[in-house]
Amino acid sequence: MDTPDAPRWATKIAVLLREDLAPWQSLNVTAFLVSGITATGPELVGEPYQDADDTGYLPMLRQPVLVLAGPAELLRTARTRALERSLTPAVFTAELFSTPGDVQNRAAVRAVVGADLDLVGLAVHGPKNAVDKVMKGARMHP
């Protein structure tokens, strides 16, 4: 529910997960994908938190992250839509579940033509309207 003090974001962050992932995979993929959005958008991160005892906590994203689900074909379509709108997506492929580290992750993605990536997750950040068009057909993750 919107209140008079609720922020109005000009942009949106959305994660699209393949609907057949195990719960642990969905959480893991979401964390990795959002790290990509955060790494390339430092302006999206707010100030550090502090409690009444003066204990400091790490900053977080300033805006909500929508987590959506859909079939494999929708992830391929969303990738194409994002690129057509000049939005650079973060991607997570099925192969990354079995690689031992970051270097091998990049090599696994590099070895496959974009249209043939076995996507299990994709995230984008951009203007609300563009992100909505990229994610068209997806539903809220359960």
What does this structure look like?
A hairpin with a 5-residue loop joins strand 2 and strand 3. The protein is of the alpha+beta class. Helix 2 runs antiparallel to helix 4. The mean pLDDT is 94. The strands form 2 sheets. Strands 5-6-1-4-7 form a 5-stranded mixed beta sheet. Strands 2-3 form a two-stranded antiparallel sheet. The protein is built from 4 helices and 7 strands.
Task: Summarize this entry quickly.
The protein is α+β, with helices and mostly antiparallel strands. Helix content is 33%, strand content 23%.
Notable characteristics:
two-stranded antiparallel ribbon; 4 helices; 142 residues; globular; alpha+beta; 23% strand
